[in-house]
Amino acid sequence: MSARPGVPATPGQAAVLDAAFFARPAPEVAEALCGVLLARADEGLLARIVEAEAYTEDDPACHAHRRRTRANAPLFAAPGTAYVYRSYGVHWLFNVATGAEGRGEGVLVRAAQPLAGLERMRARRGARPDRELLRGPGRLAQAFGLDGSWSGVTLSDSPLDLLDDGLRPAVTAGPRVGIADAADWPWRFSVTDCPWVSRYVRSARAPARAR
DNA sequence: CTACCGATGCGCT
DNA sequence: GCGCATCGGTAGC
Asked: Which residues touch strand C (CB under 7 A)?
């Protein structure tokens, strides 16, 4: 059976991504995360990331843009630290800190293709099409059981890991989803023509697109 | 498929 | 109070 474009279903030999991978600028890391495996070892969950967005402290849409607070502190922590926050009072969104320690930046993991542990994901997500298990950052965090208790966790010391199995899919860059400030910065990266990618929704508060 | 809209916690102005 | 890095239900094409 044939795989979807650019995204084989079966992972090969995989190496855990180290701090050096995340120590680069967020846009570089966001692009490089497309095709990377997300694994939760304690629950047997595995998925391939197909979409990620970059946020930096020079970026008005970034939570670290104004100042460092208790809540956004993980963005300033060592590269490879998880930052999980609540959006709209309902959903949790999973990020990974990037850049040098002390720099307030990170990458939002927005969507992935489920590969293993689908029963557990379905149990958390409810009776919905498998296509929607990990399509969108709120859904992905819910399926993986990630909440505020994961914020500040160093991934290398946790059951949650990012792994490289050598896949290098074609990646497309475009504007980020749902933000009003810096709405047109092309910092959303996704696997080209991949059905697991979330749909683009422009913020209702974003200014009209330049043309 | 698209469009609309309410839910709901919390950090910030 | 205001404003979200979202989602799911409903209505309509």
From this structure: A 53, 55, 61-64, 75, 87-91, 93, 95, 106, 108, 125-126, 128, 132, 136-140, 176-181, 198, 201, 203, 205
A69 touches strand B (CB under 7 A): yes
- CATH fold of A15-189 reads 3-methyladenine DNA Glycosylase; Chain A (3.10.300)
In angstroms, how far apart are the furthest CA atoms of chain A?
Answer: 50
C-alpha angle A177-A106-A194 in degrees, rounded to nearest 5:
45
A2 has a pLDDT exceeding 50: no
Q: Where are the domains of chain A?
A: 15-189
Mean of pLDDT values over A11-30: 94
A119 φ, ψ to 5°?
Answer: -65, -40
**Which residues pair with residue A173 across a beta bridge?**
A189
Cβ of residue A199 near strand B, that is under 7 Å? yes
The closest nt to A55, taking CA to C1', is C5
pLDDT of residue A10: 63
Q: Tell me the helix, strand and coil percentages in chain A, rounded to 5.
A: 20, 30, 50
pLDDT digits (tens, 9 = 90+) for A137-173: 999 999 999 999 999 999 999 999 999 999 999 999 9
| Residue A1 predicted with pLDDT over 70 | no
The rounded distance, in Å, linking the Cα atoms of A155 and A56 is 20
pTM of the predicted model as reported, rounded to 2 decimal places: 0.94
